[in-house]
Fold:
Amino acid sequence: MMLERTGYTVLAAGTPGEAIALAREHAGDIHLLMTDVVMPEMNGRDLAKNLLSIYPNLKLLFMSGYTANVIAHHGVLDEGVQFIQKPFSKTDLGVKVRAVLDRK
Structure:
């Protein structure tokens, strides 16, 4: 809802499997995957790998209630991966999403 209120079009999925199905069925481009790091079915990194096979130019933003240091220590995120820690404000999310989308 935060992203929609900022003007972005959002395809929301409740599970990684739903996200993959939505991506396969979606007729247009998908510019950004914003996903939690830890989820049932598969982790965010595996979901990203799956969706990158469909949308190779997809930008990635991972989120978690765990700190980036804890997540990196467990090998879930590689160095340089874009990350936002929960909870976050609408403003912080908007700034982070814009920064990720504008990265070359």
